[in-house]
Structures are given as C-alpha cells and as structure tokens.
C-alpha cells in the first residue's frame, strides 16, 4: 500500500514539475500585449492572439499569418514600446474584426507575437532570434530604441525576415541589413535641420542649453547634431549636460543650466528623466522655454510635472496623430479607436506602430502572397498612393511616387506642439520640414561610412 501511494505521489510531483516548466518560462505574448512572467498577454491573460471582438485569430476558418512585435515593453523604454505594440494590436484587431485580409486567393487573420527587448542590445539579439528561429516569423514591427534595433539588424542579413522600424531613429540603423530593414519615421539627423531654425526664429532663442542622454546611441548622435546645427545658425550653446536612464536626481545639471544664461533648453532623453529634469528646473525658479525631442503624451508628462511647470514647453517631433493637426481626419479616427481599446491617449510611437502595420498589409496585398521575398520586394515597390486610408502620417512621395528610398527610409514632415494650459496637454502648433528628402540622409551616411571605413549600401 505504501509503495502504491509513493508511486502516486511521484506521479503528482512529475506532473507539477512539467507544468512549471511548460508555463513558467516567460513565453511571448500573442496578442500585442506585454508578456507577463507566466507567458500570458497582458490584458486578457490568455496568451492568444485576439481580434477586437475577442475572437482568436483563425477562429473564423481563415488562415493565420503571424507577425512579430519586438519592442521595449518594460523599464525606461516602456513609454515608447508599449504604445507601439498596442497600435499594432489595434491594427490586427481591425483586420480580424473585418473578416481578415485578402492576400491573393486566400483570406488571413493576423496573429501578433510580442517580445520585450527592454531597449537593451543583448536582449535585442535574443528576441529577434526567437522570432526567427522559434516562432518562424518573417515580418517584425516595433523598434522604439536605436540600441536594441541596431543589435537586431546585425542579425538578419541573409535571413528571410523584414524589420519595419518605428521610433528608433538613429541614421546608422539602415546600414546593417540593407534590403531587409525599412523605417517609416524620419531619421533623427534631420531634426536639427528643422528644429534649430524654428527654435531660433519662432521662439527667439539665442543662447541654448542642451540636456541629453549622451551615453545612448540614438540620443547622443541626435544631441551632437543639434549642437552643431545651433552653432552653424548663430545660436550659442552655453551649457551641455548629461543624463542617463534612471537618473531622477538631476539637480546639479539643472542648477548649471539655470545659471548658464540660456534662454532656452533643448532636451533629448526618455520621458521619465526629461520630465523630472523640467520639474527640477522649474523648482529652481527658471521659466525658460523647454523644447523636447522626447515623445510622450500629456498625461505621461503630468505624472511628474504640474500643469504650471509644463507652461512654456514645446515638443518638436516627426508627424504624429494629434487633434487639430494637418492630418486631422486620420488622426482623430485613430485616437478615438486607440482610446476605446486601451483607455489612454496614443503617443508618437503609437502612430509609427499603427502606420507600419498598414504598410505591411499594403505590401502583402500588393505581393498577393505571404511568401517572404515577394512581400519584401513589394515593400520596396510600395507607392504612397498604395497605402490604406487609415495611415496617419503624410508621407512624401519619392521618385515614381515610392514610399521608401533605396536605403529603406521614408520621409515626412515634423509636428510642433505647444503645451496648452487650458487642455493640460500638447496642442498642435505648426508643421515644419515639408521639403526634406533623401539627399541629406544619404550624404550624412556616406560621410559616416567613409569615417568608419565601411561600404555605403545606397546608390
């Protein structure tokens, strides 16, 4: 009897251990939400791809196409990565709720598999490899951090995988996997061209302080370009201060800026640290205008700053979904759907994620197949006029009406937003940079390649 009971006990232990191994390994989320430690998608706990109505992809009898989202879902990059992942989930829910997408002779539902790269270079390698080797995904969206995006892009040359990059805007990203990588957000080397002249002419800034993540790949390149641009147009850079991810005591840096004689502050960093820097600057009594390159919604800034502390703040960023903006009809529709699904206002990165989803859908329909090479070539051949009307950003048609140039870069204007004390949120102010095109980026990267001794992949 004891022997029999012992066998039963051993069997129970084995089953329990198997369950822990199977469900405690942190599997990816499969609906566009963040992966929880148990592997279920945040929001519904099921780990299954879900349509907007809650039905699983494929439940309609359609075929299922898996796409990946690789982004910063936790940590300091989460304010950027989560909205982008959510926007892809929103797009997939729309397709599935409409009965799927017709690709050639077949109709497909979309299943979204998400991984958290934590804005980390090592994680960026791990997550893209899992999407390729474990999940057999050919199309990956997301990419809000240049650091993790560059590390991932270095893994895909020669592989049947396409990266559709959103908010990761370092120019160098396009050098590592030419032909496989496409980016809808304008490279950040263009920002100084548009931003600095506007700041001088429209905000009256003649002496500027710059606070930036100088130790981060994307932000440091951007900040140094901004400093050069300010100096070229006669704006004196009177202070350069550094902040890092997780820095919330910035009193020393802000004291230096407050005492520098600057009549404007330009910040390039994550939302949490940037908001804390502004708060501490205002607590020192400084009222100089703040211009941020950091994206983020009004409520995200108000988690740290008061409405009064936000007064005199501006955000200059690639065109986003914004009420009252020039792309108002598409923006308003997207904002409404996003708020209904997620209960919050979408950020800049959500705009990028949503557009990239519809760019991929247009390429799939243009190719008439899900076969990777055909779809990847269709992305190269996409014209702006091919895009779904739900696309938000007003992309600049290139030669032949193409969306992407030979490096895989798209181009579009910038939005200037000013803090509204009445609305306690960012409000549309202006659109700039409508005339930007490929020449500046190509020359910038050619010079970089010459300095680094690497081959320039463009024409």
From TrEMBL:
Pfam families from the UniProt entry: Peripla_BP_6 (PF13458)
PROSITE patterns: PROKAR_LIPOPROTEIN (PS51257)
Keyword Signal: yes
Domain Leucine-binding protein: 65-419
Signal peptide as annotated in the record: 1-21
Matches recorded under InterPro entries: BCAA_transport (IPR051010), Leu-bd (IPR028081), Peripla_BP_I (IPR028082)
Domain of life from the UniProt record: Bacteria
Keywords on record: Signal
PANTHER family for this protein: LEUCINE-SPECIFIC-BINDING PROTEIN, PERIPLASMIC BINDING PROTEIN OF ABC TRANSPORTER FOR NATURAL AMINO ACIDS
Similarity field: Belongs to the leucine-binding protein family.
Protein name as annotated: Branched-chain amino acid ABC transporter, amino acid-binding protein
Lineage of producing organism: Bacteria, Bacillati, Bacillota, Clostridia, Christensenellales
């Amino acid at each position: 009897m004891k022997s029999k009971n012992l066998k039963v006990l051993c069997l129970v232990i084995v089953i329990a251990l198997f369950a822990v191994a199977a469900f405690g390994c942190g599997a990816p989320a499969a609906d566009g939400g963040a992966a929880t430690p148990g592997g279920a998608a945040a929001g519904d706990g099921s780990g299954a791809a879900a349509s907007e109505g809650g039905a699983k992809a494929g439940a309609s009898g359609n075929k299922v196409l898996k796409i990946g989202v690789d982004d910063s879902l936790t940590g300091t990059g989460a304010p950027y990565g989560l909205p982008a992942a959510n926007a892809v989930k929103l797009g997939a829910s729309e397709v599935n709720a409409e009965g799927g997408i017709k690709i050639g002779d077949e109709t497909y539902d979309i299943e979204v598999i998400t991984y958290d790269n934590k804005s980390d270079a090592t994680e960026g390698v791990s997550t893209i490899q899992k999407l390729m080797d474990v999940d057999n995904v050919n199309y990956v969206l997301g990419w809000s951090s240049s650091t993790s995006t560059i590390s991932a892009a270095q893994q895909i040359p020669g592989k049947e995988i396409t990266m559709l990059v959103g908010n990761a805007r370092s120019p160098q990203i396009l050098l590592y996997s030419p032909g496989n990588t496409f980016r809808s957000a304008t490279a950040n080397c263009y920002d100084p061209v548009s931003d600095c002249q506007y700041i001088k002419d429209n905000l009256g800034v003649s002496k500027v302080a710059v606070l930036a993540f100088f130790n981060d790949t994307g932000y440091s390149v951007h900040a140094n370009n901004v400093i050069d641009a300010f100096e070229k147009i006669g704006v004196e850079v009177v202070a350069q201060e550094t902040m890092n991810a997780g820095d919330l005591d910035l009193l020393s840096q802000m004291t230096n800026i407050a005492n520098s004689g600057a009549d404007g502050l330009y910040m390039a960093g994550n939302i949490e640290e940037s908001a804390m820097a502004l708060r501490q600057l205002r607590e020192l009594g400084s009222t100089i205008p703040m211009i941020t390159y950091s994206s983020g919604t009004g409520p995200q800034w108000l988690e740290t700053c008061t409405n009064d502390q936000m007064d005199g703040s501006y955000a200059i960023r690639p065109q986003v979904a914004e009420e009252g903006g020039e792309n108002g009809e598409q923006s308003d529709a997207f904002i409404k759907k996003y708020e209904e699904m997620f209960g919050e206002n979408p950020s800049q990165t959500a705009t990028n994620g949503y557009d990239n989803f519809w760019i991929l859908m247009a390429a799939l329909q243009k190719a008439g197949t899900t076969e990777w090479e055909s779809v990847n070539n269709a992305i190269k051949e996409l014209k702006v006029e091919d895009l779904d009307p739900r696309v938000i950003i007003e992309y600049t048609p290139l030669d032949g009406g193409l969306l992407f140039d030979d490096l895989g870069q798209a181009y579009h204007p910038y939005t200037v937003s000013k803090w509204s004390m009445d609305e306690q949120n960012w409000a549309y102010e202006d659109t700039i940079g409508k005339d930007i095109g490929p020449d500046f980026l190509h020359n910038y990267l050619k010079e970089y390649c010459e300095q680094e001794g690497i081959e320039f992949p463009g024409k």
